[in-house]
Give the backbone structure.
Amino acid sequence: MQGKFTKDKNIYRKSFLIVFGILLAIALIGSLITARNLPKGLSQIAKKHNLKIGTAVSSWQLDDPQFASVLIRNFNLITPENEMKFELLSPAPGEYDFSGADKIIAFAKKHGISVRGHTLVWTNQLPKWLVNGNFSRDELIIILHNHIDTVVSHYRGQVSYWDVVNESLAPDGSISQDNFWMQHIGPEYIELAFRWAHEADPNALLFYNEANAEGKGLKADGLFMLANMLITQGIPLHGIGFEMHTGLGWSPKPDELAINIQRLADLGLEIHITEMDVRIIEPASLEDLYEQAKIYAEIVQTCLDATNCTAYSTWGLTDTLSWIPHIYPGTGSPLLFYGDYTPKPAYYAIQKVLEIK
Ligand code: XIL
């Protein structure tokens, strides 16, 4: 009785193992076939052009598995949308909370994604203790130096590109007076920031990032003059970020963008498109979405045509996660994915441009 029972148990165990083995093999072959048939994500296609494809993220978004999988498939560059800004990093004088930004860095490292650090010096999103602190010029120079040194050193070797100075220009191309650092330190805050960032991480590529200076105009000329001056003075400036916040009917003309990129290339500078979105007056029609796709395609094409345009980023992943409807009410639908992560016409338009060349 006992022997028969053991024999039955062995047969049962053997057949279980065989069935399990067959099922495992089927599952493996199946997933291999699916992986091979899955269309390539944007960053994979863009590799042959040496172009990085990026987007802005917040650390909490990485907890959503769908968000994470769309991100990993399509992007090999990420920018923390807010969590590396002064206000979010430093809750009190000399105190730093890197938890949000560290989470983004860890995710990037795990998935072989590069990071654009954003941003060390800006007049927005500054901590209250700083803005209301009545600090002297000398004190503010020390505070800014410490801030840059602390943050860049913390991420040394992990952030490939830094937006060192963000949006310092006025619409007429002059250094904006409407700026905390300009008012309290003077125009030299710009070159000091680049020097200090370079000292803290000599291998990071340092960018000046600007809005509405992509095409032809006073601000674009002001940006060129600023870049030229910094380079002439030997300041460690390696690239220019064009934010590229645009909308239907008012995106930069591709030929004007190309000329602007070229004159910066002549100074030896790299170009990143850093924050692209194309806002639409809601409700967006299908026709609007195709018009939007055309604008996205034109900008990617112009970037591809330029030898020094090395990264192309959108400011967020899905329309629902975008900052646009909050800051410009009545407009929206600015990005490459619908709220449910389905790709929009703009996504396919970019894919097509990247595949053709
Ligand atoms: C925006 C973020 O998207 C918002 O979440 C935040 O409330 C304000 O800042 N130019 C920049 C970015 O350089 O840092 C800004 O990001 C958008 C404009």
